[in-house]
Write a structure and sequence with these properties.
alpha/beta; two-stranded parallel sheet; 327 residues; 19% strand
Length: 327
């Protein structure tokens, strides 16, 4: 009898485990973890960059694409995870393209946002990133009208490059602690641009963008920008200049239509004549140089704090994604 009862208990336990396993696999919304993959042969790759991508398991066709460009000393994997973009890709259902710089191009692994040969349409690193977008659209049957570029620091500078040189490919851009397009040329040096800024009128800033894609009549990508007020690497004047540049490109004035706070930080929205939000800014009070994140499992939280990825109770990737209608 004792052996019979023990056998019955073992059968019951096994049956319970089997039911639990079946339920886990059949539960709606269950996400199987995807992994970062490197893609080779994505084009002529004149900028000699590496291409990585993250595609959630079971992602259907017709979904958006986010191009996420890391900062100096970072890499594709670390930035994708730290910024929260991979987490949001699983949550909201989109794919992520993560270009990676090589030390042979830049000893600090910075994208060369300041080199003339890397910021012009059809040349260098800008052309390589554009080829990555084309490959991703072809491979995943993604929505070509919903492609977005974003990046931190040098990656933010390269985001401005992509918005200017390939505006037809991007619906919007998100620049974190980055720089306006053509800033190094306007200032005479990338370091003057970073630490002092360049003396340009809004029209002069806008003309630099328009010259990057001669004859292009629009639509131009919208901009969401984040800047720490205590950033000593890329001074806050650069976000001011980004506002001048992209409001001019969109034909709007430099007077914010919305001034409020988000998570306690000053937030502004600039609209065009049709009422569309074309430039949006977050001034992160007291933050130094880095990507704002808000680690946790809450609906507005994302990211993992680390070097140049700063926990300030505001996740920039989440705010961008909401502005772009990703989630």
């Amino acid at each position: 009898m004792t052996q019979t009862r023990a056998a019955s208990r073992r059968i019951a336990v096994c049956a319970s485990l089997l039911v639990a396993l079946i339920a886990a696999f059949l539960t709606p919304g269950r996400a199987e973890a995807a992994s970062l993959q490197e893609v080779t042969g994505f084009g002529s790759n004149p900028g000699a960059l590496r291409m990585f991508r993250y595609v959630p398991v079971g992602l259907p066709s017709g979904r958006p694409v986010v191009v996420a460009l890391h900062g100096c000393t970072q890499n594709a994997s670390g930035y994708g995870t730290g910024s929260g973009w991979l987490q949001l890709a699983d949550r909201w259902g989109f794919s992520v393209v993560l270009p990676q710089q090589q030390s042979a191009n830049n000893a600090s692994s910075c994208f060369n946002w300041f080199q003339g040969g890397d910021i012009a349409r059809g040349q260098g690193e800008a052309a390589s990133v554009a080829q990555m977008v084309d490959r991703q659209l072809a491979d995943t049957s993604a929505d070509a009208s919903r492609v977005y570029a974003t990046g931190l620091s040098a990656g933010g500078g390269m985001t401005a490059v992509m918005m200017a040189a390939y505006p037809e490919k991007f619906a919007a851009g998100g620049i974190v602690a980055g720089l306006p397009y053509g800033c190094a040329q306007a200032a005479g040096s990338p370091y003057v641009c970073m630490y002092v800024g360049a003396t340009q009128t809004p029209k002069q800033w806008g003309d630099r963008v328009r010259a990057a894609r001669p004859g292009y009549a629009g639509p131009w990508p919208a901009l969401v920008a984040f800047q720490g007020t205590s950033d000593s690497t890329v001074k806050p004047v650069n976000m001011t200049d980004l506002v001048k540049q992209w409001t001019d490109v969109h034909g709007s004035d430099q007077v914010a239509d919305v001034r409020d706070t988000v998570a306690g930080y000053p937030h502004q929205v600039f609209r065009d004549a049709g009422g569309r939000a074309v430039v949006e800014t977050y001034s992160v009070t007291g933050m130094g140089h880095g990507q704002p994140v808000d680690p946790g499992s809450g609906s507005e939280q994302c990211g993992t704090a680390g070097a140049y990825v700063l926990d300030v109770n505001l996740c920039a990737a989440y705010r961008m994604g909401r502005a772009w209608g990703l989630g």
